[in-house]
Specification:
Number of strands: 7
Structural class: alpha+beta
Radius of gyration: 22 Å
Protein name: Mitochondrial enolase superfamily member 1
Organism: Grus japonensis
Strand content: 5-15%
Oligomer: single chain
Shape: globular
Largest sheet: 5 strands, mixed
Helix content: 40-55%
Number of helices: 10
Distance between the termini: 26 Å
Length: 285
């Protein structure tokens, strides 16, 4: 209990009469679905229906920057200490990805496997090729609110390969630093930026509201939200953005291959449905 409270709460939740996973579902024709494999099939079809399949690069409306392209021609490399740092921070109580590699094993054997992983990471980055196991996503569902039989009330949670996710985080840090230097994203953007969550967005919003009230000023606020934005954004648009802001060619090529040919499988109570292609968006955790 002291070492891992999550195990205790997971056990207690498993004994509850009302489970948070998909209990009963209604398929789109309105039929009641009760078997795990059928629920996984229905949810898989629902999630896949949100994907888009746009082809060809889309022209962005964001103006090009005046930033100078990276001139470094040396092959990209990964620091061994950085890989060891990521491995040491793995949560041993997290679930495994589709490849079955457990985070506790990777964490405890960090000093042994750091060098082999470093070689794999560097070769993947330099060649712009991502192993197919890193492109597989096991999807579990999390109930949000209201009717449990409504497919739209479930949020997908993606479980990916831990080694693949590690190198992705390393490359993501490179991308983040680059777009920060180029000032690609406005400082008012919240939600998916490091240190800027939906909570910080609300705090900023309420600060402006109360400031207007204190000054006895009338203010109109308009909030807009893009439905399923992370699941429907075209992968071609994402790559086009990276090229537009002159990210180095190795990172662009690796990102393009990572987004290409991804597949996902919905898992309900250890029952897995067949792999389905992911034609748009990025995995969501």
């Amino acid at each position: 209990m002291k070492g891992n409270s999550k195990v205790f709460y997971r056990y207690m939740n498993s004994k509850r009469k009302t489970r948070e996973n998909a209990s009963l579902l209604l398929s789109r024709p309105g039929d009641l679905v009760t078997k795990d494999i059928e629920k996984a099939k229905v949810l898989s079809a629902f999630f896949v229906s949100a994907f888009t399949s746009m082809t060809g690069f889309q022209q962005s409306q964001v103006p090009k920057t005046d930033g100078k392209a990276w001139s470094k021609e040396d092959l990209p490399s990964v620091e061994e200490d950085l890989v060891r740092q990521y491995l040491s921070k793995l949560d041993p109580h997290k679930s495994t990805g589709p490849d079955g590699m457990h985070p506790q094993v990777l964490k405890e054997l960090a000093d042994v496997i750091v060098r082999p992983l470093l070689i794999i990471f560097e070769r993947s980055w330099q060649l712009g090729e991502v192993p197919q196991d890193w492109k597989k996503v096991s999807v579990t569902v999390s109930f949000q609110r209201d009717n449990k039989d409504d497919l739209g009330k479930y949020r997908l949670v993606s479980l990916t390969s831990i080694p693949g996710n590690t190198v992705k985080q390393i490359i993501l840090e490179i991308i983040s630093k680059h777009i920060e230097q180029k000032k690609v994203i406005e400082s008012i953007q919240h939600g998916f930026m490091k240190g800027k969550s939906c909570l910080t967005d609300l705090m900023l919003f309420y600060n402006k509201v109360t400031s207007s009230m204190d000054q006895r000023r009338t203010a109109d606020f308009v909030y807009r939200d893009f439905n399923k934005a992370f699941g429907t954004v075209s992968c071609n648009i994402l790559i086009n953005k990276l090229e537009k802001y002159r990210l180095d060619k190795w990172t662009v090529r690796w990102s393009e291959d990572w987004l290409n040919c991804q597949v996902q499988s919905v898992v309900i109570s250890s029952t897995k449905f067949s792999w389905r292609p992911v034609t748009s968006g990025v995995p969501q955790g």
